[in-house]
Specification:
The protein is of the alpha/beta class and about 280 residues long. It has helices at about 10-25, 40-50, 55-60, 70-90, 100-110, 140-150, 165-175, 175-195, 200-220, 225-230, 235-245, 250-270; strands at about 5-10, 30-35, 50-55, 65-70, 90-95, 115-120, 130-135, 155-160. Helix 4 crosses helix 5 (about 100-110). It is elongated, with a radius of gyration of 21 Å.
């Protein structure tokens, strides 16, 4: 990779992206991080050899791409402080902050700055992330490729055609690991109530979660067929699925994902300066 990248925020997701880029061949010397926390800043510099600084302007100066890896409520103040450098150098800015809209970030960045949005998820920490990227129509092919290089360093990527779809992605893959963990947690608890030792129940639940993910990844993507192959007619799995249907699991999932997507839109209204009706 022949790029220079800056990260504003060196927490879990920023750190995962940095590690992924280094593993893909980007020299650590071409990566800078703006990080306010002294211990984290020192750890990034010592462990990865990147340039870590408390001065965000110093971090982004000269970068080809700037990744905003800060909390949604910090985006406005962070970008406004960076505006003099961003508007002068005009790097590509990629925000991974949930809910924050491109129009807002552009307004804070200054004229001529291209902003894109991406939504990675927690498995990026293990190099198995799922990331959706949105680019405005005016974004150049080179800028799209640059964003894909950065976000693809931690797993698979897909492009979405509408910025509003990023809120759906947040509800699907962004929050999705928590749904799977919750289901595995509940399955473990019930198995214990039914008499299984907790250590055994936990191991079986975790390995089932892991193995099922591998099966799905290796398949043609027909999840209904995979489910049917496990569900013998008149068997135990069919009895469980019927119980799910009776409890309206589909409705529960729909309500949960809608709530997550709505919360992303609420954050845009709370922390941005644009309004959508």
């Amino acid at each position: 990779m022949n790029i220079s990248a800056a990260f504003i925020g060196g927490g879990n997701m920023g750190g995962a992206l940095i590690r992924g880029l280094i593993a893909r061949g980007l020299p650590a010397g071409r990566i800078s991080v703006g990080e306010a926390e002294p211990a984290r800043r020192a750890a990034l510099a010592d462990e990865l050899g990147v340039r870590a600084t408390a001065d965000n302007r110093e971090a982004v100066d000269g970068a080809d791409v700037v990744v905003l890896a800060v909390k949604p409520y910090d985006v406005a103040s962070t970008v406004q402080a960076l505006a003099p450098v961003l508007s002068r150098k005009r790097p590509l800015v990629v925000s991974i902050a949930a809910g924050m809209r491109i129009a807002d970030i552009e307004s804070w960045s200054g004229p001529g700055v291209t902003v894109m949005r991406a939504m990675p998820n927690r498995p990026a920490l293990n190099g198995a992330g799922a990331t959706a990227i949105y680019a405005p129509a005016a974004t150049s092919p080179a800028q799209r490729e640059l964003a894909a290089q950065v976000m693809g360093a931690v797993g698979s990527t897909v492009w979405v055609q509408d910025e509003d779809h990023i809120d759906v992605v947040t509800a699907l893959s962004g929050s999705g690991p928590a749904y799977f963990f919750l289901l595995a947690e509940l399955m473990t608890d019930v198995a214990v109530k039914l008499g299984l030792e907790r250590a055994s129940a936990l191991e079986l639940a975790i390995q089932t979660l892991y193995g099922s993910g591998q099966m799905a990844r290796a398949s043609d993507g027909d999840l209904a067929r995979l489910r049917a192959e496990v569900t013998s007619k008149g068997g135990t799995t069919e009895a469980a699925v019927r119980a799910f249907d009776a409890a309206d699991l589909r409705g529960i999932v729909a309500a949960a994902m809608t709530a997550a997507a709505d919360r992303g839109r609420e954050m845009a209204r709370a922390y941005g300066n644009t309004r959508k009706t």
